[in-house]
């Protein structure tokens, strides 16, 4: 995960080696058009905030376009996110057979 492209909710780049150090990493495939995801994301965001010392959520956006993905990620400030146009996003979606 050290070379993973990663940003915060506002789009600022994060260094995975620093951001992940000593933490459990949760990879979260989600989309603003998924009703279950929209209901669950606030709970996961709160959990991530409470446990930020030991845990990080990495959002892998499944939205249909970059603007939607950014708007969705912006709602959850505790999540780190793989940028929409990142090769890493496509590789993760493919590796885990996520239909976005």
Number of strands: 3
Q: What is the terminal-to-terminal distance?
A: 22 Å
Structural class: alpha/beta
**Net shape:** globular
Overall pLDDT, averaged?
A: 95
Poorly predicted regions: none
Strand order of the largest sheet: 1-2-3
Beta strand %: 15-25%
Task: Please characterize this protein's 3D structure.
It is a single chain. Helices cover 38% and strands 16% of the residues. With 100 residues, the protein is α/β, with parallel strands linked by helices. The radius of gyration is 12 Å and the shape is globular. The mean pLDDT is 95.
Summarize the structure.
With 100 residues, the protein is an alpha/beta fold.
Blueprint (SSEs and pairs):
Elements: H1 16-19, E1 24-30, H2 35-50, E2 55-61, H3 66-74, E3 80-81, H4 87-95
Parallel strand pairs: 1-2, 2-3
Descriptors for this entry?
4 helices; alpha/beta; 3 strands; three-stranded parallel β-sheet; 100 residues
